[in-house]
Amino acid sequence: MKKGFCLLMLCALLLTGCGAKESVEQTEEGEKTLKIVATVFPAYDFARTCGGEDVEVTLLLPPGTESHSYEPTPADILAVQECDLFLYLGGASDAWVDTILSAAEPTGRTLKLMDCVDLLEEETVEGMEEEKHGHDHEEELGQVKEYDEHVWTSPRNAAQIVRDIADVMGELAPESAEAFRTRGEEYAEQIEVLDQQFRDFFDSLPSRTIVFGDRFPLRYFAEEYDLDYYAAFPGCSTQTEPSAATIAFLTDKVRDEHISTVWYIEFSNHLVADSIAEATGTKTAMFHTCHNVSQEEMDSGATYLSLMEGNLETLRANLP
Fold it and tell me: What's the gap between Cα 252 and its chain centre?
């Protein structure tokens, strides 16, 4: 980790001291309120939906922040240490969490989203630009990333994660367990309805091939709906400029298979997608991975469900 980050952690530890706290705080009315911290938007959304007014949920990553380059502040470390439940991915983009967990010694529970579902190994498909250098945190820790962390991009996985979060919340606050699980089940069922709508849509298409002129953090989505995909970079790539060979391959793929749309993801400058689309006379469109949201989306009340419903509408508008 960077020297500045280590200093921040030391400052945080000095601020926190060695005192412990109750796992669940009492409100003035005598009711228990869970304090939950989540690293990514899907976990944040799932927890707040299950918890309703009985929980206080904090999104650790500020809206619009890139998780791969994020460095926690002392306040973040303190929040993780003192929360009742900490929700995180467990993948490469939040490898910094391991350092926080070992240094801060949180007094509450932790739940890793990657532990909730069956995992898929990362893959590099034909034409994709391979990562030239591993993430800094991988090199320092001597680890090689093997599994794709973007588990929530499969709605079926998302429904399971919602149920698991509701169960853990119920264990932490038994008096609210029924309410947590009821809200969680209702949300999971709504997501499963959307899952079926995605299936029906893709079943209606003459081709299941999609092209992303961008990173592709949608391996679970593609696997769920049996999609063939081509992209400029893997999901956790830090590169932004593909080689001429990669662009040529994707351009030829769009032409040869009569692809109608070149896709990009949120917070992308979509220059690669624009270049391919211009060369082939096609259009571009954005697919929201839900990893994080903009401040505007947060303020407007965006949810995992609303963002994925928006993706379905965009797919319908842009695929034959």
Answer: 31
Residue 127, amino acid: G
CA 182, 168, 225 angle in degrees (round to 5)? 70
Backbone angles phi, psi at 83, to 5 degrees: -75, 160
Letter string b/e over residues 210-227, b meaning 16 or more CB atoms within 10 A of that residue's CB: bbbbbbbbbbbbbbbbeb
DSSP H or E stretch at residue 283: strand 283-287
Element at 261 (helix H, strand E) = strand 261-265
The model's pTM: 0.87
Phi/psi of residue 215, nearest 5 degrees: -65, 160
- The answer to whether 239 and 132 have CB atoms below 8 angstroms apart is yes
Tell me what the mean pLDDT of segment 274-303 comes to.
97
Sequence-distant (≥ 6) Cβ neighbours of residue 60 within 8 angstroms: 37, 38, 39, 72, 76, 79, 80
> For the purposes of burial, counting CB atoms within 10 Å of the CB of 38, is it exposed (0-12), middle (13-18) or buried (19 or more)?
buried
Residue 262 near residue 277 (C-beta atoms within 8 A): yes
* Alpha helices by DSSP H, 84-176: 96-104, 136-141, 155-172
DSSP state of 211: E
Number of Cβ within a 10 Å radius of residue 244: 7
Separation of alpha carbons 239 and 182, rounded Å: 43
Pick from 291, 307, 45, 308: nearest CA to 201: 308
Q: Predicted confidence band at 97 (pLDDT cuts at 50, 70, 90)?
A: confident
Whole-angstrom CA distances from 257 to 10, 125, 202 are 55, 17, 17
Token pair 């571009």 in the structure block, residue: 284
Rounded to 5 degrees, what are φ and ψ at 210?
-125, 150
pLDDT band at 199 (very low <50, low <70, confident <90, very high): very high
What is the amino acid identity at position 253?
K
